[in-house]
Each structure stands twice: as C-alpha cells, then as structure tokens.
Amino acid sequence: MAWTRNDIDALLLRSDKAVERAMVTLYELQRADEQRSTSTHLDNTVGFSAFDARAGSRFARWVLGYNDKDQAVYEPKSLTADGASRIFWRYCKNGEQVIDRARRIALKHSRQLTDVANGVDLQRKVG
Question: Distance between CA atoms of 123 and 52, rounded to whole angstroms?
Fold first, then answer.
C-alpha cells in the first residue's frame, strides 16, 4: 500500500507519537553540518526548512535524548513531557503546546514524510 499525503496528514493530526517520529525523520534528513548548527545551509527541499530548522532540530534532539553535540546522553523524552514547555516556549506561538508547534512543522513537511513512508531515498533524489 502506498501512503498518500492525506494519509500522513491524518496520522500526524491524530498521533503525538507520529509527530515525534516526524521530527526525528526530518532531523535525520538534514545534512550533518545542518544538524550540528540546527540550521539549513542548502535549499535542497530535504529536511527542515530554514524557518523550522532550529525548533525542529531541538525537538528531535529532545525526543532522541541527544545533547547539542548529537550524543545520546539523556533519556529520550516525549514533546508532551513535563519540562518541554519550559524549555521550548520560545519556539511556540501564543502559548501553544510544544507538540502543537511540532505538529505544524510536520504537516508543513508532510510531502517529504510521505516520500519516506513510501521508501523514496530523498538524499539520493537531490544528490
């Protein structure tokens, strides 16, 4: 079965776990230098957009338990965990929850997530 963008969007709208996995997937699509700097250096339509790179990268690191050097040194956490809103408040608009900001990022990038779900190698596609 091939996933459609509507399928992925529906999954993201109903599942916090899918949103967290989307943050990790998009982070993994970033180039290594982009992961280190939590920014986008190349407009290649792969990974986070420049606007979402810092927040999305920080969210993915939180979910993975990574420090700022991309080392797994913490217990992986949910974006709905206690403390997430205190740490990530600056990335959220008008008091929105961290998971809701992450959901907006995931939905914005759901075309890539659909490709990944369908086995498309996005790195090769732009490489």
Answer: 19
